[in-house]
Amino acid sequence: MKFTAQQIAEILQGDIVGNPDVEVSKLSKIEEGTQGSLTFLSNPKYTQYIYSTKASATIVNKSFVPENEIDTTLIKVEDAYAAFSKLLEYYNMVKLNKTGVEQPSFISESAKYGDNIYIGAFSYLGENVTLGNNVKVFANSYIGDNVTIGENSVVFSGAKIYSDTIIGDSCVINSGVIIGADGFGFAPQENGSYKKIPQIGNVILEDNVDVGAGTTIDRATMGSTIIRKGVKLDNQIQIAHNVEIGENTVIAAQTGVAGSTKVGNNCLIGGQVGIAGHITIGNNVKIQAQSGIARNVKDDEVLQGSPALPITDYNKSYVHFKNLPKIVKNINDLEKINGNS
């Protein structure tokens, strides 16, 4: 699909400097721009590339004034980064604008769905499934019995959503996600074996939740595993049974949250963090990558290490830790001196 610089400027409410009729059909980084591509400049470190880029059009801040001759048509806006992000959203919306039901696919007779939906080939919709308006379920996805998915949500190829899951509006479920598998519950027996504890709860995702590829969210033993509105989960995260993740919390890849832990609102949790079960993490907490959390955490704490310490204590301790060989040598030398005196 092609757009002129003028059409893009109208979408972004920007001004044209150059040829308004130049056409673009793809997006590029400014240093990799080619004819027919659209790029942007917001970081001053990349200013040098605007004089050499082959991109046909470039989004820039209104304050930008070229110091040398340029070949690219400029689209001047208040905030180039925000404008380009808006354009990416628009591009993504156009790219994913599929509708209809592809065959072969299976949709139960009791399933209900709204207007403008898309069901990709080889998808399965079980009994009493409900899909809101504008929901898109891409190929090879499984939607189990009694699942509800709210308006404008997207389920990408190969996702598996087990029975009784409730997904809100404007959620994104990426490929390979599994929502609602059994929680890890086993009771030890006298003979040393383990007996499975039935997991009869469900999973609830509120509105505007993003779940990254390969992430798993287990159903509750009883009640619900709950992901509150605005939560963003990266790829390959494990959320165990009866966990609750608070509003607008962001969790990076390969983090694991054990059963029945409650994570507060607006937390930032780095990659490969391990969080023990049955603890409470407060609001606005920041946890650095590869930390291990085994205790309750108060609001606004910033933690690092395993077991995690307040980050200032960790940094002070690390100074001594990295000098430990030298410190041990000094102690040994002192002992030798004292032993010879």
Automatic annotation (TrEMBL):
PANTHER family: UDP-3-O-ACYLGLUCOSAMINE N-ACYLTRANSFERASE, UDP-3-O-ACYLGLUCOSAMINE N-ACYLTRANSFERASE 1, MITOCHONDRIAL-RELATED
Catalytic residues as annotated in Swiss-Prot or TrEMBL: 241
Keywords per UniProt: Acyltransferase, Lipid A biosynthesis, Lipid biosynthesis, Lipid metabolism, Repeat, Transferase
Ranges for domain UDP-3-O-[3-hydroxymyristoyl] glucosamine N-acyltransferase non-repeat region: 21-89
Stored InterPro entries: Hexapep (IPR001451), LpxD (IPR007691), Trimer_LpxA-like_sf (IPR011004), UDP_GlcNAc_AcTrfase_non-rep (IPR020573)
Keyword Membrane attached: no
Keyword Magnesium: no
Enzyme Commission number(s) of this protein: 2.3.1.191
Gene Ontology molecular function: N-acyltransferase activity; UDP-3-O-[(3R)-3-hydroxyacyl]-glucosamine N-acyltransferase activity
GO cellular component terms listed in the entry, alphabetical order: membrane
Catalytic activity: a UDP-3-O-[(3R)-3-hydroxyacyl]-alpha-D-glucosamine + a (3R)-hydroxyacyl-[ACP] = a UDP-2-N,3-O-bis[(3R)-3-hydroxyacyl]-alpha-D-glucosamine + holo-[ACP] + H(+)
Organism: Flavivirga eckloniae
Descriptive protein name: UDP-3-O-acylglucosamine N-acyltransferase
